[in-house]
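Sample entry (248 residues):
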Amino acid sequence: MSTDDVGARAASFDRGAGAYAAARPGYPDEAVRWAVPPDARDVLDLAAGTGKLTQPLVALGLHVVAVEPSDEMRAQLSALLPDVEAFPGTAEHLDLPDACVDAVTVAQAWHWVDPPAAATEIARVLRPGGQVAPIWNVRDDTVDWVGRWTEIVHRGDSLTDTLRYGEPALGDLFTEPEHATFRWMRPMHPADLRTLAASRSHLLLLPDDERDGLLDAIDELAATHPDLRGRDVVEMPYRTECYRARLR
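Predicted structure, serialized as tokens:
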């Protein structure tokens, strides 16, 4: 798979910012606290999207700067958190001073970056001993209806095996990453499973008729699966996979 295809997928969220803000999950408080050193004051939320992780960071009383390349995603973040400074930029090119933050978080985005360039740039903006924390929310596909939802969403997805959510390659600038998993349940309305699917990069780039066909299949799942049919609220099982490493 070419870099251009990965780049197109990464850039697709500009057109899906509203769905992303409406349907994507946030992050459990214990995972957020684990990702940031207890003595941190200034935090960069990198690839901040619509502010799903930015919001709980702010709630911890931290001074948070957000960097997000998508204008539409950044606009959603600013509407949600008008007091947070939000700038355009990427993991590889940050328009920020050297040694300006105590920690960097990267939620649901490390799989889009160029790891060596991103690690170098993150190291530049961290203060001595600062910490970087890549984080992912991952659905528990062993639950039958969740696995079926995932199968529909990834039909025809050529990047399924390319974009892996595993230990980040941070290089020699950082200590060996530590890892922690936090399991939690997210209440949802079954009808919102369609919006959640519509926020996925694979669907965002499909022609309208193909995208609508997959979204209709999601609606059919919500209407017919015995664990979803007739329910007002269901719980989507997630595990939040967190990594953290210190600047050497």
